[in-house]
Specification:
single chain, 171 residues, alpha+beta, 2 domains, 8-stranded mixed β-sheet, 3 helices, 36% strand
Length: 171
Amino acid sequence: MYTKFSGCAVLSGVCFLLSSCWLNPEAEVVREAFRFDQERFDRERAAWNAAGIKNYRFDVHVDGLGAFSIIRYFIENGSFKNRVFIKLGSIDHSNPGFTTIPEFYAKIERFVQEKRKEYEGLNPDYERYLIDVEYNSEYHFPIKEEVYIFSSRGDIVGSGITYAVKDFEPM
């Protein structure tokens, strides 16, 4: 027999399940204390290097700590040539730690090594760490690096500064 109470209970349960999946889609995926897709990182970097692109420009969007900045970089013969500050936030993000795509790869690699040492061997029931990198499918450079820290329940409890490469153009 269907009652008003049981219908509400079922609906509440469905809403809870949907909201938990929506709020944290990674909670079911991240089980170890530290996660980074090193294989994909190495494969994408090898493809970028094989492409041999030496002259290009790109924008770096830096988002974090309540501030947002955009910096345009110009690369000539594989080396940094110039940058233009399109937008600087209230916190100085004028130096994101890289000026070329290979330097972005190196920055991510250093960060991963540092965090891997810090988090490997920790109990994943306490806290989990995910470094998520998205890649450009045509030129194989990282287009976005995000960091998530999950609590033992799978809730996102922290994140770092997000770096995104946009408006890439070979020249």
